[in-house]
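Dear colleague,

Following up on Tuesday's group meeting, I ran the structure prediction for the three-component complex that the binding team flagged. I've pasted the input sequences exactly as they went in, so you can double-check that nothing got truncated or mislabelled along the way. The structure tokens for the whole assembly follow below. Feel free to forward this to whoever is handling the docking comparison.

Inputs:
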Amino acid sequence: MSLHLQNIDHIVNGVPHISGIDLALEPGSFNVLLGRTLAGKTTLMRLMAGLEPPTRGKIIMDGKDVTNVSVRKRNVSMVYQQFINYPSLTVYDNIASPLKLAKHPKSEIDKRVGEIAEMLHIEHLLNRYPQELSGGQQQRTAMGRALIKDADLILFDEPLVNLDYKLREELRDELRDLFKARNCIAVYATTEPNEALALGGNTAVLHEGRLLQYGPTEQVYREPNGRFSAEMFSEPPINIVPGQLTDSEITFDQTLHFPCDDELKRLEPGDYDFGVRASHLTLQPQQADDLALDVHVDVAEISGSETFLHVRHERFPLVLHLAGIHQFSVNEPLKVYFPTHQLYAFDKQGHTVHIPARQGGAAHG
Amino acid sequence: MAEITLKGLAHSYEKTPKGAADYAIRQMDHVWHQGGAYALLGPSGCGKSTLLNIISGLLEPSEGDVLFDGQRVNELPPEERNIAQVFQFPVIYDTMTVFDNLAFPLRNMNTPEYRVKPKVLEVADILELTPLLDRKAKNLTADEKQKVSMGRGLVRDDVTAILFDEPLTVIDPQLKWKLRRKLKEIHERFNITMIYVTHDQLEASTFADKIAVMYEGQVVQFGTPRELFERPAHTFVGYFIGSPGMNFMAVEYRDDQVMFGTQPLPVSEQMKHAVASAANASANDISHNNIKLGIRPEFIAISSSEVANSVPIQVTSVQDLGTYSLLTFKLNEQTFKARLPEGHPPVSEAAFAHFDAAHVALYIDEYLVEAGHE
Amino acid sequence: MNNKVPNNRAWLLVLPMLVLVAFSAIIPLMTVVNYSVQDVLGPNARFFTGTEWFQSMLNDDALQAAFLRQISFSLIILAIQIPLGIGIALIMPKRGWQASAVLILITLPLLIPWNVVGSIWQIFTRGDIGLMGWGLRELGIEYNITRNAGDAWVTIILMDVWHWTPLVAMLCYSGLRSIPEAYYQAARIDRASKWAVFRYIQLPKLTNVLVIAVLLRFMHSFMIYAEPFVLTGGGPGSATTFLSQSLTTMAVGQQDLGPSAAFSLIYFLVILLVSWVFYTTIMNMQKDKPPHGGA
């Protein structure tokens, strides 16, 4: 099964929700729709499912035009943010419901429900009712119902957002493994860049109803085609600093000069936005020509094992992503080091004009 | 000013609790010092909200005492405890303006209007609500509403503690860090004890100087974010803190070696002795045969060729997560996670893992007994 | 712009609804409008009369009196039932079997048909066999709804309050149940008094429910017919003759189709107008005053 959205526009009450999206999804692929709230992820999924027809454009499934085919006649399933199950049915009956509707024989239903429940680790809960389950278990049940019917297209609309982060971690891992063996197209909407990276597959970056970039997740992350794409696909967001490029140096804020990387010299002199990843800024110099900046601490956000340090330079804010746990107090003065060899450059139209070379080798075996 | 002490505190929602399982809070002693920034961290159902409600006075504990500065306050209702609480969903008085919302607690105490106004303006200024003072609270955004509910606690001079119950749940992800910053600023500016309940490690570690991790109705560790990461006192803390959590191995002591199944583990001499004596004790006492070694994914080094003190492993996958890669491997049929820094050289399928001895920890019966040695 | 095909199929989907509305509302209404501007003397003898019927209806003293009675009646029962309903909802038990028991008890009057309510009260107030009529007489209180207009009014209002306050109470009860516990907790911590809790939490959260309650009760009471008809027959004199009864007498009793059609339309417009004014006022009250500078 392949799915091709051709020049889709969707306008609701005169407000464009989706503008000119052209997207072809391969059979058996896992695709992440990444974008902030209101970027158009849910709308796009509704169009893919056939819950509503697009205002303009065509939807082609396996070479057939299904633009106006109702959702009932397409073989799709969907998992939502809220844990949606039939409250009066047991977990078993919830998962079995699509097969029962399709009048499959009892023995087959038994077998399939057993398989799916085992895969989702809820085989011991089959006789319970949804309200007796934890959030994670409820969402597993909803996923079981979506997975059992061998749909051609499975849509996940931020399914893990209402779960705590440990459950999210676990379910994410399981989901990725579940789809390795399947031949349907999976589409997964999320607002979190890290979730997209953890899920792998392909990523489509959406912003204000437009498709910014689509490709293998890792590649989209490493080689964003523009400033927006880079900003959407990084958590904490990539630091953007406007500056001037001459044939020998870069100037930030008219006062900070530093010699420019050889690669960057190939660009036309002029004004650019320079991007540097939060994880590339450091508290100790990594290279002799790192640029030292005097900053003040805004806040240090600490996750269990890493620190996101928000600081501000006189004219621009910066975010650092540090491994390990570091504590700072608000307004503490600090020196941070800016790697001059790891700069992305975006022109004033927002297109990527330079991508830094990767340090070291790929980590792949 | 308040130091909050929990003495022999326990709570059950059952009238006649039978076993430990009937307790939402198992017996505990705990002190929250005046002026500290604390977090109460744990998964849903661990008892953290129950504990918060006991502190605020919305719930009376079934056993033990709650002391505010040494005074027993068990029976005091929330309004007499000089505390403020910020809830998960912003609670605002819809029909009032932002100004009236902030003034509400003061007016309820019959504060004269000439004293109300400067106080409200001061708090509005700190919370950056000044331009919104004339607006109806109903029409604010979620983060503005949450700031208003926080402000109602800050206007009162008599408030000595503010309790937060997952206050950032409904806030837009892009705005969260700004509110976190505001919270820290407020804590530094007002000398108020703050207790922040959450299930999110980022929220807890960002806000708090010290975190109480709760699990099955008990505080299993009370420590700084760094301590929780580097020396988890309980296997649950190891699992719950860090993404991904700690790897655990059930080990035995055989033939003068620490064995993980059939695999001898290279550990420090001290660790070996610790495991040996634990194993010895377990020979006599069946409750002690739960011996585990824990190591965080951050402290496992992976190489394609054998190095000193390494064990052979089967690499199953490497996932590029941008700022680092997550490597999954099998050792003795068990799955492990290791974190490789960005730019790590490629790893072959049959590789070797080296556990940093300084970060291997020993757990008996799920509790830490011996942390790493160099 | 060749791919800009206006999607006409959407209209097809709305069509059944339009047909339904046409049959249920527009066509009967047009019949009334049709009658209201004609004088029908016989099957083939109709004359166009323009606004004549409307003018005569608006100037009819009996109708004006009935209209005033109607307005007074509606206002009085609203003034009693809304606060009373809120009050009952506030003191109703919140959970457990008591809550269910009270709910069932309270809804009983709602299950009784209008004319039966009228009959029940007719018997109830009789001086010979009615509990209330007899009781009052035994207490030495002069009470007769067929002779004393005041007694008749009090009785009709009592009857309506008994019959319909439960509806208001139930609506408010469900509205109160939907207020999250955190609001009450926050209010306790803010040291709000019981009155402040009611004024700033419960009442604002009940606004939407109360709008529905007021509109329902207003429209209902404005069309009240069966109960006073059975209880007092509109008397003594015409003291309790409300609009709907005047209309019925005119249309069915006297076969004055033209005037009664014009009257129906005026009746309809009054209800529509009052409801609309009420609704928009309430909704506007909830909006923000534009901030200074009009941002």
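Chain A has two domains: 3-232, 239-354.

Cheers,
M.
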